[in-house]
Amino acid sequence: MDRKNSSPPQRPGGPDSREDRLKAALKANIARRKAQARLRQAGEADKKTGETED
Question: Coil, strand or helix: which one is 46?
């Protein structure tokens, strides 16, 4: 019972499943970066308004 095909068996999802996971991870990463940028912008705006108020 020799195995002629030495490659690992394919997962049931196939390559599309991997692409879907990558797309979802990229979308989540972009959303996280946008949220961080918004927080930074809000923090800078607070600092600027805090300096002018005395």
Answer: helix
The mean pLDDT values, 10 residues at a time, for the chain of 54 residues are 64 79 97 96 79 54
Give the 3-state secondary structure of 1-43.
CCCCCCCCCCCCCHHHHHHHHHHHHHHHHHHHHHHHHHHHHHH
- Claim: this prediction has a pTM higher than 0.85: no
Distance CA 29, CA 31 (A): 5
Give Cβ neighbours of residue 11 (< 8 Å, ≥ 6 apart).
Answer: 17
- Tally of residues, the chain: 54
d(CA 31, CA 39): 12
